[in-house]
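Summarise this fold before class:
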Amino acid sequence: MKVLISTDIEGVAGVYHPEQTRAGNGEFERARLLMAHEASAAVAGAFDAGATEVWVNDSHGGFRNMPPDLLDARARVIQGKPRYLSMVAGVDEGVDALCMIGYHSRAQGRGILAHTINSFAFAGIALNGVEYGEAGLYGALAGEYGVPVVMGSGDDAFIEENRALFPNAAFVQTKRATGFTSGVSLSPEQARAAIRKGVAEGLAARAACKPLVFTGTQSVTLRTQSPAMADLFCQWPTFERVDGVTLRFTAATVEAAVRMLNCCSAMSSMLR
């Protein structure tokens, strides 16, 4: 059994503020250690459940947050960008199950540090008229490779938002959101223990977890954070401008849609 663990930072126990998610300050240095320890707990849970190989995907920001020497030595680590499959790079390597650690709710959601892919550029993303966060988008991308999501951890808003998408997955609540930058968290030790147990339980029940598959052409609606951002993205000739901050494009697959969105995210740095 080969397991992929995709690890973000906003859903990690004890993380509340944007400074904790941005490199170059002391708060981030502490938060990325908390992120690494939760990832290691997930690795341990996977091996508890009988995994023979576990890959950890560093899935936040520049994708090089977790010090590799702090991760469970049995895991292989995917870091650095760009990479075509982004937060689920590795699902094309014969993976049997995907776990999402430290995830968060979508843009405009009520969760802690809620956003979708790029908080500076994107105000919302919908596929065929339904808004999704990163868990839905990347869960569906994994589904195109036949890989089910079996476990997720994050705050209560993340869980509420995604339970219907992954009805048989195990969810671990690391904290409760009381605002965009406030909440009530488990201790790091409690969160790690719960994650280890949750991963093992999710993998034990993986036969009941079906891949999330969005069939057919994807009509993607992207709401941007400003008209200037929409101006920039609509340099792509296949993008349709809907209004001042909204654009639309079509993609043959979820993977193609996500890759286009990540291209837009990279382009947005021109306006910083």
About this structure: The first strand starts at residue 2 and ends at 7. The radius of gyration is 17 Å.
